[in-house]
Amino acid sequence: MKITKDYSLLPHNTFGMDVKASLFIEYDSVEELKQILRDYPLEGDRWLHIGAGSNLLFTGDYPGIVLHSCIRGFEVVAEDAEAVIVRVGAGEVWDDFVAYAVSNEWYGAENLSLIPGEVGASAVQNIGAYGVEAKDLIVEVETIEVATGKERVFRNEECGYAYRESVFKLSLKRRHIVTKVSYRLRKTPSYHLDYGNVRAELEKSGCALTLSNVREGIIKIREAKLPDPKVQGNAGSFFMNPIIPYAQFEALSARYPQMPHYEVDAQRVKIPAAWMIDQCGWKGKQMGRAGVHHKQALVLVNLGGATGKEVIRLSEEIQKSVSDKFGVSISPEVNFI
Ligand code: EPU
Question: What is the rounded (10 degree) CA torsion for 83, 51, 235, 290?
């Protein structure tokens, strides 16, 4: 366990905000986490658990305890002819898990290659890309209840998963800390190539359809469009894609026939926020030291030395113009701290 006072969170948030935590605690095991809960009763909102900080925007120093898991390890806990179940420590880097799955020829996680963040957050945030979400793989989520220090395991159906949503973000927010996540991976090919340009890009590359080539292809698509946080601070998609009633979609598509959309169910349609932001002319624009990425309008970037407040100001202007032009409200995916 490592405990540090007045700790700079710069290496722990991909937006690159140089803010301090009053106390920073990193732990290596479930036992150490239980010890922390005994020694530092985590009350109210004076504490925060972070992963890789790839979905956070700090607006100032954090006057409380910041926790970070270093629980590591990949363990095959069940296996049959069709699939394996792998139990992974919450502190593992997400893409290391994807690489591990691909190197073992286990299918399912490859479309989620290169998503920044850690395994614990994958279960809270239900991360997703290119037609696959973490919930499609998760079998169960092991947690410790903050108030009692007791272990509780949530089966997939108990996690309330929906688009970028889970009970850990809603009704049980801040009540449990994820320690390990078990994923089911298939032993036989079952590719998901029908999202956007995935199939076309793979065909263009002329490579055979193999698991590692799909991973490479996804990495190339992401690298071509999304800025590397090591080069330019950002938190991936800044806003969620709004889900609107079908009738509202019909009215909008009469005015904007080229508007991309995905049906969620018979009543609801998901509209890409990136497309609307782009249509409002924001791509590549900047306000102070915060900007809109020039290749993906959903990504806000730190152009160097931006404060969290500057990024929020830009995001509010964007929300306003999307609402004025399309009558649709978009909400941040990023958490403001
Ligand atoms: N588009 C534009 N302008 C842009 C960018 C996109 O018009 O600047 C259009 C595209 O042409 C496309 C549509 O918007 O028709 C959707 O774009 P894209 O496929 O790039 O995906 P997205 O909806 O913007 C979501 C996820 C990403 C994930 C991609 C790929 C959310 C909030 N974001 O973005 O996740 O990588 O799909 O599956 O759901 C993240 O969460 O950090 C993230 C990067």
Answer: 180
